[in-house]
Predict the 3D structure of the following.
Amino acid sequence: MRRTAYATWVAGAVAVALAATACGGAGADTSAVLSSSWGDPQSPLEPANTNEVQGGKVLDMIFRGLKYYDPKTAEAENMMAEKIETTDSQTFTITIKDGWTFSNGEKVTAQSYVDAWNYAAHIGNRQKNAPFFRMIEGYGDVHPESGSPSAKTLNGLRVKDELTFTVTLDQPFSSWPDTLGYPAFAPLPRAFFDDHDAWLRKPIGNGPYAIESYAKGSEMRLRRWDGYAGQDRARNGGVDLKVYTDNNAAYNDLLAGNLDIADDIPAAQLKNVRRDLGNRYINQPAGIIQTLAFPFYDDKWGAGKEKLRIGLSKAIDRRQITEQIFQKTRTPASDWTSPVLGDRGGYKPGLCGTACDYDPAAAKKLIQEAGGLPGGKVTITSNVDAGSHRMWMDAVCNSINNALGRDRACTVNPVGTFADYRNRIHGGKMSGPFRAGWQMDYPLIQNFLQPLYYSNASSNDGKWSNERFDRLMNDANAKDEQSRAVRLFQDAEKILAEQMPAIPLWYQNGSAGYSERLSGVSLNPFSVPVYHEIELN
């Protein structure tokens, strides 16, 4: 799960009240525990060091921050924030609600936020999401691009009293408050700093659930925390997140009654799922796109290889793959965002232009003009613990091979687990195109662009960099009017079509199945089960 800054006007004018309460419906067993499929996270669950989906699921259950994204609309609403005030869109005074504690009994204070943000930003702590704090004054002093830091804390953070702190940005940004629902901005207890190793073994948060235990490769047990101060209290007794390295196994366990939720229906089962589950199958549009990113740290794929990258894009028959393998749960991509954004959020079909059109003859010509495939072949890499990944990887390679008229021009490199795969990416060990799926954090084009393609952004795994793109993103972020900002974001997206740092493949639906003993099951717009609303009959 990866997130980044966005503009205030994304949230719109309508505030939707959180409806969940601690009470379940008639006949619901609020003490019962449900089970759900899961995968081991890449890293220990520090809020500022988690930028992938599996770890993000847990953070969303055990933490609540200043803002919260509504599970039906994705709109930003106040959670721990009582109010966020500013007169100049550069210095913000934040007052938090009284009465909140962490699950170990510690009170959540303004200092809890300031300490957490200072830790996240400091280069010595090597937090993946440190760039989310780059707009706070003093970031360059604690996280310099080179050399040693000249300060230990961000100059732009000041605690005024137990419930109030101020944040000064390095430039005006009126939309900054609505970024604060991202877990990287979560508060941290003193226990995190006093005994960091113990906290990593059993993270302590302030959300509706608390971690009871975790056995890597097996399961994580979360239980409802009855001391939780928010309105969205859990309607069940807890969730056991069970680790699966094959989503076919998860699906079979669901059918056998050994699992309550499988939130990644394998492609091989899509033709049977409605017969198997009936109305217990969920298939809905989600803010997810799958792409193939290129490692720009490898000269074979980087600067000057635009024709090669575009040629490979044109060699992929997206429509055939989505129809034959994914059974209407994917749609061929024609840009780098998602249709769920709509016009207001910035989606504009066709921004990829002809670069995303299947054209075998043109693909072959472009690749030849680029000097051919590096070393005469291309290898696609992805984790394969989600069952459909191997199927589409083979299909993409078959499409490329057919376009080039060679049986072994394209091969696949399957990596056994998501955690291992992300570690390889983070270590800069990709030697060819690799899967770079993205799950939105809020419904705006900016969230699909800045974290992935802005220079040195937290999820820019391919290390692509373009000054024109960065400049357009900065200009768009500074706009208060949505339509003006969206136009600039779309102009930036057109640069992606010229450079092809990542090949758009398809837009992905959220899909899940659940057992007969559950009710109130839904997926949020980010395709994650809304665990706290689920009831057990």
In short: Residues 482-499 form the longest helix (18 residues).
